[in-house]
Amino acid sequence: MKTELIKFAGDVPGNEIELRVLRFSGSDEQAASAYLQSSLHGGELPGQAALHFLVPMLQKAADEGRIKGNITLVPQANPVASNQWQAYQHQGRFDTFSAVNFNRAFPLLPDFDTSDLPQPDAPEALIKRLKAALLRLALPHDIVLDLHCDDESENYLYIAEDFVEDMKDLAVALNCTAILAWDTTADAAFEEACAHPVLQIPADKRNMKRRAVTTVEFRGLSDVYAEQGAEDAAGLYKFLVHRGVVEDASVQLNLDYQGLVTPLTHVEMIRAPQGGMVFFHVKPGDVVSEGAKLATIVTLPGNPEGDIVLTAPQAGRILTRRSLRYLRRGDDVLKLLGDKPSAVIKRAGALEA
Ligand SMILES: [Zn+2]
């Protein structure tokens, strides 16, 4: 394994950051290559835990001459987000300078040519240079896995619709219960920026069986345990073996995906009509019928007349819920995966801010 440090001058003097890139060289030029990054949102650690345990597995494979395709890993993809704290709280989702979500506004390139993107020393804002560097690292690979997590959640994947059929192997390998399939913009998330050049290729020339581009949501923010990390690493490893990136005759993948494939239009984002304290009546993984009680928002503590009961707009599976039990008006409360299009949510773009 080779370790590369990419250095970026800060936007003001004395604030240099560095990106740590780990590379394994493949022995077979025909083999698929893979790029895995985690913690684009700084404090989202289940994916980082998975990579922590995956790297030694890959090193063993390298020592035994079993790495077939090039593999690039960036376990801490966003040193800016990693270092954003305010009043003892970590703030990894939004750039505190611009209030822009770190996983939005990536360049959507017409092809795989990244030569026009700013270099680490370009006269551009750091976050633009960092995003350019991540895209430049990822795009040469057939497989791009961007490892995130939700708040409280099951394992699930975001996948562009055109990729879904050929990526159920990943969903099986990672024990995902759902695939959320998108076909409009995801507000230029990293995943979309990596899928975009592929989607510009005529459908009969893309070789989708070789490709995979996704945002992996590895459960919730607090689901960070050594055992779980090792299990997730084993899932990623199994997928890499299945795709021929790594050779390992002892690993087999069952290809029978039993989970849901849900278009984004069928995702009910249950929102808080008013602020207050929330009591949940359901948890991720629960299957509910239409009209089932999902949560109660207490708007007048001490007076039950102020309680607002949120119910299921259609039958479905609870995928996520928020961990903070204090809500503001309009906040996302939970995601329910329905069988039919949501009657209330009209969207083009990402599900969440
Ligand atoms: Zn994230």
Characterise this structure.
With 353 residues, the protein is α+β, with helices and mostly antiparallel strands. The protein folds into two domains: 2-258, 3-Layer(aba) Sandwich (Aminopeptidase), CATH 3.40.630; 264-338, RNA polymerase II/Efflux pump adaptor protein, barrel-sandwich hybrid domain (OB fold (Dihydrolipoamide Acetyltransferase, E2P)), CATH 2.40.50.100. The chain contains seven helices and 20 strands. Strand 5 and strand 6 (89-90) form a beta hairpin. Helix 1 packs across helix 7. The longest helix has 18 residues, at 46-63. The chain is globular and about 65 Å long. The mean pLDDT is 96. Residues 40-41, 44, 103, 148 line the site of zinc ion.
Task: Name some characteristics of this structure.
Aminopeptidase; nine-stranded mixed β-sheet; 28% strand; AstE_AspA_cat; zinc; hydrolase
Write the layout of secondary structure elements.
Elements: E1 2-8, E2 17-24, E3 34-38, H1 46-63, E4 71-74, H2 79-82, E5 85-86, E6 89-90, H3 126-138, E7 143-150, E8 152-153, E9 156-160, H4 161-164, H5 168-173, E10 178-182, H6 190-199, E11 212-220, H7 226-242, E12 260-263, E13 267-271, E14 276-280, E15 287-288, E16 293-298, E17 307-311, E18 316-321, E19 326-327, E20 332-338
Parallel strand pairs: 3-4, 3-7, 7-11, 9-10, 10-12
Antiparallel strand pairs: 1-2, 2-4, 5-6, 8-18, 9-11, 13-20, 14-16, 14-19, 15-18, 16-17, 18-20
This protein binds zinc ion (ZN).
Residues 40-41, 44, 103, 148 line the site of zinc ion.
